[in-house]
Amino acid sequence: ADTAHHEGFWLAAEKHLFNPVMDAIIEAPYPVSKTLSGCDFAPESEVIRLAEGSDNWPMTWADDDNLYTAYGDGWGFKPYTEIKLSLGLSKIEGLPPNVKGTNLRSNSGERVGQGKYGVKASGLLSVSNTLYMLARNAGHAQLAWSSDHGLSWEWADWTFDESFGCPTFLNYGKDYSGALDTFVYIYSTDASTAYDIADQMVMARVPKSKLKLQNAYEFLSGFEADDSPVWSDNVRHRYPVFSNPGKCYRSGITYNQGLDKFLWCQIIPLATESKGPRFVGGLGIFESDNPWGPWHTVYYTRRWDIGPGETMNIPSKWISKDGKTAHLVFSGDDFFSVRQVQFLK
């Protein structure tokens, strides 16, 4: 990074990444949270399962008070689509356990193609009455946007051309309310595709008014001695925002206003069967006071008690006012799966 010569720069950067258990095989890669002592999950019998046969499910809370999501390699909610889509769009109404999903048909948004051969959404965000979508499997990742709640989409004529193979947005509250600054933040495995397990995660930011402009994006490139992040307009200067060697995969991150914490849900891809973490896999939930860390562990297991899915997120609409009760949305067992979680203080 351009500021690497500053005194203390690398020491500050290393503090965000390395700790006494980083080289452990079983333990979490970051110290235990000092403010959240863990979490309790609702029993498996209470998990909501809808949209059988579809996975993915990044989500955002839009200005019309609905949640919007996207599914992959499936037919969405009943009544199912007549063809299998690699990228389908849906609207979610209600609060758990009374949740209703409706497929949104969009000629400009939908895509077909199985697995890595089909474009799929990896992140959704509502900002200033506009939906933004990050799509993977598009020759790295590509941005699209919709001003009519997902019915029609425009696609950027550029892609992320290095790393950022499976990017997702940091979500705040309804239509980005409660954001702590004027930037939008993006996280991804440091890999060219969504199918590569990486050693680290990387991060970018862009002014929320300039999301469509490729040259407006900056990449985390390190930390100053006072822990403030350093940004570069050159992706080759990127520096890890998170490290977990051989275990960084797909994820979702949300600001929990009640707890005043950024909560990052990460799938730990240590599946013991060929179908992957949709059916067997690990889960990590990490917290920080800042979008860029340093991170602390709320929950970590190499094998969750049910399949965690290929990605997971916490919709901000479904977080209680005090922040202690929330719901995880994940693609476990190839469903739109919803499970309540209680954060312990």
Order of helices and strands: HEEEEEEEEEEEEEEEEEEEEEEE
Intertermini distance:
38 Å
Q: Identify low-pLDDT runs.
A: 1-11, 18-25
Which of globular, elongated, flat, extended, rod-shaped describes the shape?
A: globular
Give the integer mean of the pLDDT values. Answer: 92
Radius of gyration: 19 Å
What proportion of the residues form beta strands (DSSP E)?
Answer: 35-45%
Q: What kind of sheet is the major sheet?
A: 10 strands, mixed
Number of helices: 1
Tell me what you see in this structure.
There is one protein chain. With 345 residues, the protein is an all-beta fold. It is built from one helix and 23 strands. It has one helix spanning 9-17; strands at 38-41, 48-50, 55-61, 67-72, 88-95, 98-104, 120-127, 130-136, 141-146, 154-160, 168-171, 183-189, 198-207, 218-223, 229-232, 242-248, 251-256, 261-268, 282-288, 296-301, 312-313, 325-330, 336-344. The strands form four sheets. Strands 11, 12, 13, 14, 15, 16, 17, 18, 19 and 20 form a ten-stranded mixed β-sheet that branches. Strands 1, 2, 21, 22 and 23 form a five-stranded antiparallel β-sheet that branches. Strands 3-4-5-6 form a four-stranded antiparallel β-sheet, with no helix packed on it. A hairpin with an 8-residue loop joins β12 (183-189) and β13. It is globular. The termini are far apart. Residues 1-11 and 18-25 have low confidence and may be disordered.
